[in-house]
Amino acid sequence: MRRSRSVLISRRAVIAPVRQTDGGRVQSDTQPVRRALLRRLAVLLPVIVFAGLAVLLGWGLTRNASEIPSVLINKPVPEFSLAPVQGRTLGLSSSDLRGEVSLVNVFASWCLACREEHPVLLQLAASGTVPLHGLNYKDQPDDAARWLDAEGDPYTRTGADLTGRLAIDWGVYGVPETFVVSAEGRIAYKHIGAVTDEALQKTILPLIERLRAKAKDQGS
């Protein structure tokens, strides 16, 4: 008898207490607690979402946009052959990018950042350190020729990508972008944005020297 009574008490303990509402409906006492939790969640959810967005934004701002990796790194340059920019005689093709380390700079006359980096490219070309080729992106032929005539032409060869199709093959996000191409014709590095003297001295030129040393070792 005692055992049956204890079982009955334990069963009653696990049943949630109920209360009668004014309308005669039976309502569990846990529902007010649930509503309170939902109200608290409704207040906290915007705060949580805002904090998450702030973290993502802060992470994005701390990243160096010029160091965004390319899926084409260590892969051969796309096969192509382009006519030169108007007024130039030497066009640009994939075969021109084999045999020595070189740079390919994607530019346009309408690009403000291209004007920012142009003095750096002129200085680099004058030094004769490395062949610098220009890929003219979605430009009007007259505008591209006029801009190079006025500002100076640092390029050994130029290719007029009038439709922007080749830039897509190269994985170009926008202009300017600059690629380091190995002597084997493989893309070794991609710089997004204007090339600065700091980027040249700290990253691009040291990489060129390493690629040249590697090509020399492989050839010996």
Low-confidence stretches: 6-16, 54-66
Q: What is the number of E strands?
A: 9
Structural class: alpha/beta
**N→C terminal distance:** 100 Å
The third-level CATH topology of the largest domain is Glutaredoxin
CATH architecture of the largest domain: 3-Layer(aba) Sandwich
* Total separate domains: 2
Q: In percent terms, what proportion of residues is strand?
A: 15-25%
Mean pLDDT: 83
So how many helices?
A: 6
- The helicity comes to 40-55%
Question: Based on CA inertia axes, which overall geometry fits?
Answer: elongated
Structural description of this entry:
With 220 residues, this protein is of the alpha/beta class. It folds into 2 domains: 15-62; 67-219, 3-Layer(aba) Sandwich (Glutaredoxin), CATH 3.40.30. It is built from 6 helices and 9 strands; from the N terminus they run αββαβββαβαβαββα. It has helices at 2-14, 30-62, 112-127, 141-151, 165-169, 197-219; strands at residues 18-20, 26-28, 81-82, 92-93, 102-107, 132-137, 158-161, 177-181, 187-192. A 5-stranded mixed sheet has the order 7-6-5-8-9. Helix 4 (141-151) links the parallel strand 6 (132-137) and strand 7 (158-161). The protein is elongated, with a radius of gyration of 33 Å.
Notable traits:
elongated, Glutaredoxin, two-stranded antiparallel sheet, five-stranded mixed beta sheet, 220 residues, 2 domains, 9 strands, alpha/beta
